[in-house]
Amino acid sequence: MRNGRYIDRIQHLLRGLVLVATLLTVFGSSTCSCAPNLTAEKRRNDIEFLARWAKDYSPFVELNERRKGLPNYEMLVPHYIQLAEKAESNAEFYQVVYGYFSLIGASGHGHLLSEQSLRGYLMESLRQPGQLPWYQFHAASYWPKLQDRECFAHPPFRIVRDGQEYRTVEDWHSKDCLIPRGSKIIRVKGMACSSYRERLQRETWLRYVVVGAERIAERLLAVHEGKGFDGWQVDFLLPNGTTHEAFVPAKKDSPSESEFTDYSLGGGNCICLELTQYVGYIRVKCMGGMFIEEDGKKIRKFLEDSAGKYLRLIIDVRHNGGGLHYYGFDNLIAPFLDESVTYTEVGGIRKPFWADHKSDFLETLRRGVSIFAHETAVEEIAPPGGFDKTRWVFYKITRRVDPRERYKFSGQLYILLDGGTGSAADEYVNAAQRIGLATLVGQRTPGSCGPYFNPVMVRLPASGMIFILEADLMLNQDGSVNEITGTQPDMELAPFHLPEKVTKEELLQDEWVRKIIEGSVEG
Question: Domain containing 329: what range?
Answer without folding.
Answer: 256-339+403-448+486-523
